[in-house]
Design brief:
This protein is an alpha+beta fold. It has a single domain, classed as Aminopeptidase, CATH 3.40.630.30. It is built from five helices and eight strands, in the order βαααβββαβαβββ. α1 packs across α2. It comes from Promicromonospora umidemergens. Keywords: Acyltransferase, Transferase.
Length: 161
């Protein structure tokens, strides 16, 4: 199976948002894929595209995943410090998971980061994602763990360059 990775086109933003929300729901990170404040944020790809790079993975010309890449801080950065790039909101359609799209998206972000350190946050329940990050060389940075809202604990992972 060949996976194409490229910048998302505006016409694909709605699809990317639905895929990312569905992936977060399937992974236990959302109560519902179509309701609630964070689900709304995940689906609002157009707003993210104004401040970050939206990258998609396609199989057979169909979008199967997306990620928000923040190369140098700004309003879309949650935890990136000076000189760091940040990966946010990675999601692959549940029926396309396990075939390399998530890995391809992560590798693209890493390549775009160049020599900069790469950081990301992930929920504690996302154990499959943790394995992907660790396989790509990311290590836990417990001193940078944080909670955007009470009851949502996020783990920080860092890839040193």
């Amino acid at each position: 199976m060949s996976i194409e990775v490229r910048d998302a086109e505006p016409a694909e933003y709605e699809t990317v948002g639905k895929i990312v929300a569905a992936a977060f729901f399937a992974d236990g990170q959302l109560d519902a894929p179509d309701a609630g404040s964070y689900a709304d944020v995940l689906r609002d790809v157009e707003s993210r595209a104004a401040a970050a790079e939206i990258i998609v993975a396609l199989v057979g010309g169909e979008v199967v995943g997306g990620v928000t890449f923040v190369p140098r801080g700004g309003p879309m950065a949650d935890i990136a410090e000076e000189g760091e790039a940040e990966i946010r909101m990675l999601g692959v359609a549940p029926d396309a998971q396990g075939r390399g799209a998530g890995t391809a998206l992560m590798r693209e972000c890493i390549a775009r980061a160049g020599a900069r350190r790469v950081v990301l946050s992930t929920q504690t329940v996302a154990t499959g994602s943790h394995r992907l990050y660790e396989r790509l060389g990311f290590v836990r940075a417990p001193g940078r763990d944080w909670a955007p809202v009470p009851g949502v604990d996020l783990l920080c992972y860092v890839l040193e360059r």
